[in-house]
Amino acid sequence: MDETKCLEIGIYGYQPSSFCDYPHKSASVFFTSGCNMSCSYCHNINIMNSGRLLSPEEVYSCLRHAVTNRLSDAIVVSGGEPTLQGENLKHFLRFIRQTCSKSVKLDTNGTNYGLLKEIFEEKLVDFVAMDVKGRFDGYEKFCYSSNPDHLYKTVDLILKSGVKHEFRCTVGEEFDKKDFHFINSYFPDIKLQQYRSVKVN
């Protein structure tokens, strides 16, 4: 295994221990750089505005810590939007899979159907959480470009993947009646989450 490939991923921050990012598990959390959305209520805006990526040496150190950390049961890759990392994300997840038996969770906004399909096919994650911003035909409020059909395909992919999952939504000022109707009808069991800001190394 070429460890250098997994270090090419863009990481803004690392949280050694979290009790709210993986259901019923303690977890070490990595925050990837870049996002294709601009949400006013972004939980991790302080990370996105930090302007500094971890060096490959720092990424490796954090990764080794996450793998060996006895105080965490799982590893979470969050963002930003992790799937913007492309192949580097898969290298990163493979390294975790091949070096420890901890559960792995991926957070995503669901806009990269193709990469998620590849990740599921390789069984690189045990849990996926998709953030739903509102009705799919109104995503222009949150992102620079949107494809409602792609989002529906991603939801269907997740539901049929056999991977544990949750759909979650943060209700922001951009929400309107159409958003609430869509959420209630299409995601009756969705997890509504409250805004929180976290600080990481």
TrEMBL record:
InterPro entries: Aldolase_TIM, NrdG2, Radical_SAM_PqqE_MftC-like, rSAM, rSAM_sf. Residues 21-201 form the Radical SAM core domain. GO terms for molecular function: catalytic activity; iron-sulfur cluster binding; metal ion binding. CDD domains: Radical_SAM (cd01335). PROSITE patterns: RADICAL_SAM (PS51918). Keywords: Iron, Iron-sulfur, Metal-binding, S-adenosyl-L-methionine. NCBIfam families: NrdG2 (TIGR02495). This is Anaerobic ribonucleoside-triphosphate reductase activating protein. It comes from Candidatus Wallbacteria bacterium GWC2_49_35.
